[in-house]
């Protein structure tokens, strides 16, 4: 199993290469979420893209990528924080069939109102940095093309991405042209290095990206180049939802509402809106929520029976 981000740098320091391959971390995210294959693929591609991009942002917080649509898929959201903890979800529009052969445009931009949204969400406990949000039209036939267009227009960075995903793996490769800093490397040499890197990377096959370890992918593509390799970074699936947080939400509903739910069912079932993990509270569990509330000095005037 592989859940790592690998980083490399061309010898002349003009091109960054990054590769990510997620297996069990990706599969952990799908345990409680079940999507049509075409939606799952888009979600997985956005997951790898978020990891590749978040690792280059120097701030304490999270990168959030959103595909917002007006087709059968209403929203795809991926969040990746500074520690490369990821979580992701997709929201399908109720009452609308998802075609088995659905593409990015047919699934999310059916009426031309789709949007790609980038959010930098800083940790408010450690930084005074203000949140940032960038929104652009959903232009491109793939997640990779959408991101490349955004990076080119909004960040002024030449960036190429190769992304893929299936039920067992989410993987991606990133090339990024780094800004010149003068010195002995001329603009002509920088351009030649970038064009050579892109041409080599374009020989990459989707199945290779899915099946091969990241190191082997990079070695196959750039075996004639001298690359500086950095320490790999671990990636994990992590959603901060907990049973305690769900319990607090049930307390906010109030005992009367919880009693009403229990009168129609043996238990209260709540699923995390983000990762889909289910939480089950039977009558005894629910009663304890309000007993604990009274004991803590914040009693609800109505208790469960």
If you had to describe this structure to a student in words, what would you say it looks like?
- The chain folds into two domains: 3-237, Hsp33 domain; 243-295, HSP33 redox switch-like (CBS domain Like), CATH 3.90.1280.10.
- It has 305 residues and is α+β, with helices and mostly antiparallel strands.
- It is 34% helix and 29% strand.
- β4 (73-81) and β5 form a beta hairpin.
- The model is unreliable at 295-305 (pLDDT under 50).
- Strands 1, 2, 8, 9, 10 and 11 form a six-stranded antiparallel β-sheet that branches. Strands 7-6-3-4-5-12 form a six-stranded mixed β-sheet, covered by helices on one side. It has a two-stranded antiparallel sheet with strand order 13-14.
What is the secondary structure topology, with strand pairs?
Layout: E1 3-10, E2 15-22, H1 24-30, H2 37-54, E3 61-68, E4 73-81, E5 85-92, H3 104-108, E6 115-122, E7 132-137, H4 143-154, E8 159-165, E9 170-177, H5 187-201, H6 206-211, H7 214-221, E10 227-229, E11 233-234, E12 236-237, H8 243-253, H9 255-264, E13 267-271, E14 278-282, H10 283-295
Parallel strand pairs: 5-12
Antiparallel strand pairs: 1-2, 1-10, 1-11, 2-9, 3-4, 3-6, 4-5, 6-7, 8-9, 13-14
Helix pairs in contact: 8-10
In short:
The chain has 305 residues and is of the alpha+beta class. It has helices spanning 24-30, 37-54, 104-108, 143-154, 187-201, 206-211, 214-221, 243-253, 255-264, 283-295, and strands at 3-10, 15-22, 61-68, 73-81, 85-92, 115-122, 132-137, 159-165, 170-177, 227-229, 233-234, 236-237, 267-271, 278-282.
């Amino acid at each position: 199993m592989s859940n790592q981000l690998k980083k490399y740098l061309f010898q002349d320091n003009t091109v960054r290469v990054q590769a990510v391959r997620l297996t069990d971390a990706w599969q952990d995210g799908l345990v409680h979420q079940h999507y049509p294959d075409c939606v799952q693929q888009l979600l997985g591609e956005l997951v790898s893209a978020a990891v590749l991009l978040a690792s280059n942002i120097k701030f304490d917080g999270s990168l959030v990528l959103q595909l917002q649509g007006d087709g059968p898929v209403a929203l795809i959201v991926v969040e990746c924080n500074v520690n490369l903890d990821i979580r992701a979800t997709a929201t399908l529009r109720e009452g609308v069939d998802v075609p088995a052969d659905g593409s990015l445009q047919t699934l999310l931009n059916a009426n031309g109102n789709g949007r790609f949204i980038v959010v930098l969400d800083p940790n408010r406990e450690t930084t005074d940095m203000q949140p940032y949000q960038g929104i652009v039209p959903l232009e491109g036939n793939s997640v990779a093309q959408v991101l490349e267009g955004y990076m080119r227009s909004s960040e002024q960075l030449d960036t190429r991405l190769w992304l893929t995903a299936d039920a067992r793996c989410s993987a991606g490769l990133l090339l990024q042209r780094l800004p010149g800093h003068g010195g002995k490397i001329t603009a002509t040499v920088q351009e030649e290095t970038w064009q050579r890197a892109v041409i080599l990377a374009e020989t990459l096959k989707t199945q290779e990206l899915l099946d091969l370890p990241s190191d082997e992918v990079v070695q196959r593509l750039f075996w004639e180049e001298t690359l500086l390799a950095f320490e790999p970074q671990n990636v994990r699936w992590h959603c901060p939802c907990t049973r305690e947080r769900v319990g607090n939400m049930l307390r906010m509903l109030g005992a009367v509402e919880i009693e009403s739910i229990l009168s129609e069912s043996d238990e209260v079932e709540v699923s995390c809106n983000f990762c889909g993990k289910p939480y089950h509270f039977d009558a005894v569990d629910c009663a304890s929520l309000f007993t604990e509330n009274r004991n803590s000095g914040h009693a609800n005037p109505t208790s469960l029976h």
